[in-house]
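>> received
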Amino acid sequence: MRNRKVTDKEPHIDKNGWYAVWRDEPLREAYTRIFGKAQEEFNLKQTRNDRRVLDYLSNVQKSAKQHPVYETIITLGNVDEHPEPRESYEILQQVFEEWKKNYPNLEIVGAYFHADERDPKTKKSGTPHLHIDYVPVAHGYKKGLAVQNGLVKAFGEMGFILKGKDTAKIQWQRDLKCRVT
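>> returned
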């Protein structure tokens, strides 16, 4: 949730500006919802207590290869040319609502619409945009939990696979851009 005590002190935030929180799920609750069953099933198979996964979120947070959550920012236009905030809101809300269908392996845990930012010097309003925080969900692992946080594998399950210099993430970003414009 947006902390007004913090944002009201920020020079680029218009205190009377418009923002909306569409989803704000605490990360620990999200991990329990997303990975809880896989963790429970994994732990039931373990004969030694030291091999049990007690806190999958903490394991991911300690990992050098994984991130507990990723963020993408979706903007329509640029600072000079962009739709009015109401139109941006409607378009970005549609992107948010269709996300699960389009990207089933990227589980949204946070979605925040901003039309309340401006350049502190020029007072020019910023471009309305949407922050989406997501957890990549991949299936079919043979070691560890059967369902894990795995960005490349999650992209692969959705059909985004490395092709030359086109990484899975670049392909996904291109697909997302096509859906927004």
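>> The mean pLDDT is 90.
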